[in-house]
Specification:
165 residues; alpha/beta
């Protein structure tokens, strides 16, 4: 991952509003475990080696779309390409590497080696993976809080995952 700089939580919140995000920082009772003002947020560009640690949100919809219910983006099954939101991004030819304003919003317990759980942009990430075969070069906001693993929507595998070196 290339870190482009630190950003304020308010910048991430403006982005969430602009994308009409369903899951937002502090939402779904995230703030019970991680007060929103305690997040350290960064604008980044994902690298090929990050793919081993990118997870979809631990919601039933995404759990059931991955092999072994891992929630790992790399394990997304072909059936996910038929989801209307995914289809809309694929058919529009949207490449997240070159589309400002569609950054993923990701939470992690630390920036460099912990699992990256997409809270906003799950359908965009799936479409990117199907159409481009990678999330390399995709821009994202990574929001770090050491207690994020306590939030129930973090997939179980992401709580214990150690990426390959």
């Amino acid at each position: 991952m290339t870190i482009n700089g630190k950003v304020e939580v308010t910048e991430v919140q403006r982005h969430e509003q602009a994308t009409e995000s369903n899951v937002r920082l502090g939402g779904y009772h995230m703030d019970r475990h991680c007060p929103t003002n305690e997040f350290q947020c960064y604008r980044v560009q994902l690298a090929k080696q990050d793919e081993d640690r990118v997870f979809l949100l631990g919601l039933t919809e995404f759990i059931n779309l991955t092999q072994g219910q891992s929630c790992q983006l790399r394990d997304v099954v072909q059936a996910a390409s038929a989801i209307p939101r995914v289809v809309s991004f694929i058919e529009a030819g949207i490449d997240l590497q070159s589309r400002p304003g569609l950054e993923l919003v990701v939470v992690a317990r630390e920036l460099q080696s912990a699992p990256l759980v997409v809270i906003d942009g799950n359908h965009r990430a799936i479409a990117q993976f199907f159409s481009q075969g990678s999330v390399e070069g995709v821009s994202a906001f990574v929001c770090v809080h050491p207690a994020i693993g306590q939030w129930p929507f973090i997939p179980p595998l992401a709580r214990t995952h150690a990426p390959h070196a």
